[in-house]
Design the sequence.
C-alpha cells in the first residue's frame, strides 16, 4: 500500500513539473534549476558522446560494408543478365546472317535442281573429338530421311544417318567413315573425298599421272550411272585444294582439301529433299 502511494505521489509531482515547465515563462526559478542541471550534466554528456563515437563509427562502417556487398551482388546479377541478353542478341544476329547467306546459296547457280531446301538449325554438336555428328531441328515430318544431304551456306557438310519426327542426326564429312564421290572443277579429275588430318579432307584415288593444282575447286560428283544413284546431287561445293603431293611408290596423288564449311561453328543449315 505504501509503495503504491509513493508511486502515485511521484507521478503527480512529475505531471506538475511538466505542467509548470510548459506554462512557465522562459525565465524563472524552475528554468534556472533546469539550466543548472544541464550545466552539471554537460561534462557527462560530452564524455558519453566521446565514448560512444567509436562504436557508432564501427557500426556505420560495417553497416556500409554490408550495404556495399549487397549492392555488389545486385550489380553482378544485373551484369550477368545483361551479358546473357547480349549473347542471345549476338547469337540471333549470327543466325540471321547465316540464314541470309543460305538463302543466297539456294538462289544461286550452284544450288542443285529438282531439290527443295528444308532450312533448319543445328541444336547439338559433337560430344568429343571422335564424334563427328550433329543434330538438326527437323526430321521426317519435314520430309527428311536417312541419306538426305545437308549443306551450309558455304557448302556440303554431310548426310543424315538417323531421322526422327522432329530431329535428325547428320554425320559430317570429317567422320572417319564418310566418303563422297567428287570432282575437280578445273581439271575434271574425279576422286573420293574422305577425312584427312585435323579438319582437312583428302581427295583420294586420283591417279598420279593426272593433274590437280593448288586452289582448284572440288564439288560433289553426283550420279554417274542411274542404276547406282549417289546420295549427293552434282555440283555442291566441297572445298579448295590446299596441297598436292606425289610419291614414287604410290599410285595416287595425295590431294589435301580445305573444306568450305566451318564444321566447328555450324548454325543455319539446309537439308536437300528431292522433289
Sequence:
Amino acid at each position: 500500500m505504501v509503495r503504491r502511494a509513493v508511486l502515485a505521489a511521484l507521478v503527480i509531482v512529475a505531471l506538475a513539473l511538466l505542467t509548470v515547465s510548459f506554462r512557465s515563462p522562459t525565465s524563472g526559478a524552475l528554468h534556472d534549476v533546469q539550466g543548472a542541471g544541464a550545466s552539471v550534466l554537460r561534462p557527462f554528456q560530452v564524455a558519453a558522446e566521446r565514448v560512444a563515437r567509436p562504436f557508432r563509427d564501427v557500426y556505420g562502417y560495417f553497416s556500409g560494408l554490408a550495404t556495399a556487398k549487397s549492392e555488389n551482388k545486385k550489380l553482378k546479377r544485373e551484369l550477368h543478365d545483361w551479358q546473357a541478353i547480349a549473347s542471345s542478341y549476338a547469337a540471333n544476329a549470327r543466325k540471321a546472317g547465316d540464314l541470309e547467306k543460305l538463302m543466297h546459296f539456294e538462289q544461286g547457280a550452284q544450288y542443285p535442281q529438282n531439290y527443295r531446301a528444308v532450312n533448319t538449325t543445328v541444336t547439338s554438336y559433337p560430344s568429343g573429338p571422335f564424334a563427328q555428328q550433329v543434330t538438326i531441328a527437323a526430321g521426317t515430318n519435314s520430309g527428311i530421311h536417312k541419306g538426305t544431304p545437308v549443306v551450309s551456306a558455304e557448302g556440303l557438310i554431310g548426310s543424315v544417318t538417323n531421322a526422327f519426327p522432329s530431329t535428325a542426326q547428320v554425320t559430317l564429312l570429317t567422320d572417319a567413315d564418310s566418303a563422297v564421290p567428287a570432282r575437280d572443277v578445273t581439271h575434271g579429275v574425279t576422286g573420293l573425298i574422305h577425312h584427312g588430318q585435323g579438319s582437312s579432307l583428302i581427295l583420294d584415288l586420283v591417279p598420279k599421272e593426272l593433274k590437280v593444282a593448288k586452289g582448284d575447286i572440288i564439288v560433289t560428283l553426283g550420279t554417274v550411272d542411274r542404276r547406282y544413284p549417289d546420295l549427293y546431287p552434282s555440283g555442291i561445293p566441297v572445298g579448295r585444294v590446299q596441297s598436292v603431293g606425289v610419291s614414287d611408290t604410290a599410285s595416287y596423288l595425295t590431294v589435301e582439301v580445305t573444306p568450305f564449311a566451318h564444321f566447328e561453328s555450324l548454325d543455319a543449315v539446309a537439308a536437300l529433299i528431292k522433289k
Notes: The domain at 116-275 is CATH 2.40.10.340 (Thrombin, subunit H). The chain is about 35% helix and 25% strand.
